[in-house]
Write a structure and sequence with these properties.
The protein has 262 residues and is an alpha/beta fold. 33% of the residues lie in helices and 26% in strands. The strands form four sheets. An eight-stranded mixed sheet has the order 6-5-4-9-12-14-15-16, with helices on both faces. The protein has a three-stranded antiparallel sheet with strand order 1-3-2. Helix 9 runs parallel beside helix 10 (186-198). The two termini are 36 Å apart.
Length: 262
């Protein structure tokens, strides 16, 4: 049990598969050991593994306590702008791109407006208004309206996105831990999973404040993305074990210059 705690302290999160491989135990034994440690208050079990108690203290707030979309858009603004500048290199004329309701997508809009023939698919009402103001073609995804995100989510949104083919998908996440992306709302998770499933290129926009945070629902691994763009304040240990160097780009926020991780 002490070895499991030591592993958690290093990684923040472990999976059942990792415990089986690391310690040569059965999956049943791994589950039983995690149950014991959870009762002792040393970790919290999540789907497929566990996160350390230190990580759970940095969990994402419940939906009813989240700031508004416009408030969140102002948070870490310089980081988001630098990240968007790098992510914009993935854009080409004539693309059909998906942008989710994450405020990290907002700084991408000016780059999109400079290219001809771009169609943007989104479930975000706030983002739709900005896109239209910039003269872009927008396909608005319907679904269950969620005021916390000013966006449509749920099964209807999931099914609608599943009928599309997307050249590029730009999304973010409020929480990343142990190479896994989390979200506090399961209906939003449906939207993100659907977009990732039909996107040729999948780009994650994620600033350093999102790392070592967790939420109830996992929707993707860092390894599921063709490119992860973050800022230089993100510790390397949070992404390097989970991605090859050519699929991570790190931006220096001070001058918005990009350094590819190698």
């Amino acid at each position: 049990l002490d070895l499991i705690i030591e592993l958690l302290e290093r990684r923040g999160k472990v999976t059942i598969e990792e415990l089986v491989r690391e310690f040569g135990i059965s999956a049943m034994t791994a589950h039983r050991d995690l149950d014991i440690l959870q009762k002792q208050g040393l970790l919290r079990k999540v789907r497929g593994g566990a996160v350390s108690e230190a990580v759970t203290r940095a969990s994402v707030h419940a939906l009813d306590s989240e700031a508004s979309w416009h408030d969140r858009a102002r948070a870490a603004l310089r980081e988001k702008e630098a990240i968007a500048a790098r992510a914009a290199r993935e854009l080409q004329r004539g693309m059909t791109v998906f942008m989710d309701d994450s405020t990290s997508c907002l700084p991408l809009v000016p780059y999109l407006s400079r290219l001809s023939g771009i169609t943007v698919v989104t479930n975000s009402l706030s983002l739709t208004r900005v896109l239209v103001e910039h003269g872009l073609e927008v396909v608005m995804i319907g679904g269950t309206y969620r005021p916390a995100f000013d966006a449509n989510v749920g099964l209807l949104a999931h099914d609608a996105i599943g009928r599309l083919r997307l050249d590029a998908v730009f999304i973010s996440t409020p929480a990343v831990s142990g190479g896994e992306c989390y979200h506090p709302d399961q209906d939003s998770v449906l939207v993100k999973r659907a977009a990732l499933a039909v996107g040729d290129r999948r780009i994650l926009l994620v600033d350093h404040s999102k790392f070592t945070r967790v939420a109830p629902y996992s929707f993707a691994r860092l390894a599921d993305f063709t490119l992860v763009v973050t800022d230089a304040a993100t510790p390397e240990k949070e992404y390097r074990p989970h991605l090859p160097p050519d699929r991570v780009a790190v931006v220096e926020v001070s001058d918005a210059l990009t350094t590819d991780v190698g």
